[in-house]
Design a protein that fits this description.
Elements (H helix, E strand, L loop, with lengths): L1 H25 L14 H6 L3 H40 L3 H7 L1 H19 L4 H21 L4 H26 L3 H19 L2 H12 L3 H21 L21
Helix pairs in contact: 3-4, 3-7, 3-8, 3-9, 3-10, 5-7, 6-7, 6-10, 7-8
Length: about 260
């Protein structure tokens, strides 16, 4: 707790001057800030065409399912990975706990790899499918080749961090206006974390009922497979609005 407190103070020292500088840059030269006030969320939503609204709802539903799979897999494997490694490989308690650490540490690498992939013009679908394949390697690998556990743990660790980044990058890029992005993000996280909250419990219950880890791991593979399918659809090339429909305002950063 003390360590996190120190980091918070360091962040505060860095961000307060940066925030003041950004505020000065945002001041209109010789004008009133009120005159440049952005439109309200209600006005932004009212200005959207029916087609843009349908596309936004479709994207939100798809990414809600995808994030539910992502979060369910993460919390289920975080809770039970040490026990799985212990039971399937005969590790001690301490060794199994230490062996699961790369699953968390490699997430940092995944979070950095995804922006690099986008910066190199790799398509969203390609990036999403690479992350999904890496994620799926953990439950499938522990089922068919548990001796290579370190490979599967490292790949899935990077993927669970990277896939999180892919999902919310799609929210930012594909939302027509900022208010839609905010609402979509709230809906996606609410649905995803609501499902994930139950994941450790049902995985433990299935393990107790089946007497092993084969069925629980197969179910996690199925959940991640569903995530992969919805990510495939959601990350497809964005279609332009029909020319006879008025296009809504474009969010900053939208391609």
């Amino acid at each position: 707790m003390a360590g996190w407190g120190v980091l918070a103070v360091v962040a505060l020292v860095a961000w307060v001057p940066a925030g003041r500088a950004l505020a000065r840059l945002g001041d209109p030269p010789g004008g009133s800030r009120a005159s440049t006030r952005p439109p309200s969320a209600r006005a932004e939503l009212a200005a959207l065409s029916p087609g843009a609204r349908r596309s936004a709802r479709r994207l939100t539903v798809l990414l809600s399912v995808a994030f539910a799979g992502q979060a369910t897999g993460y919390y289920a494997m975080t809770a039970w990975l040490p026990a799985i490694l212990q039971d399937r490989l005969g590790m001690t308690d301490a060794a199994a706990g230490g062996a699961s650490a790369p699953f968390q540490l490699c997430a940092v690498a995944g979070s950095f790899l995804v922006p690099i992939a986008f910066a190199r013009a790799l398509s969203a679908r390609t990036t999403a499918m690479v992350m999904a394949a890496m994620w799926l390697s953990l439950p499938v690998g522990l089922l068919v080749a548990p001796g290579l556990w370190l490979v599967w743990v490292g790949l899935a660790g990077a993927a669970q961090g990277g896939n999180f980044t892919v999902i919310f990058t799609l929210v930012a890029q594909r939302s027509p206006v900022l208010s839609v992005a905010r609402r979509a993000s709230a809906a996606i996280q609410t649905a995803g974390y609501a499902c994930a909250a139950l994941a450790p419990t049902w995985m433990g219950a299935v393990h107790a009922a089946s007497g092993g880890w084969t069925v629980p791991l197969a179910l996690i593979a199925g959940v991640l497979g569903t995530m992969t399918a919805t990510m495939w659809v959601a990350s497809g090339r964005a279609t332009a609005q029909p020319p006879d429909e008025p296009a809504g305002p474009t969010a900053p950063g939208r391609p």
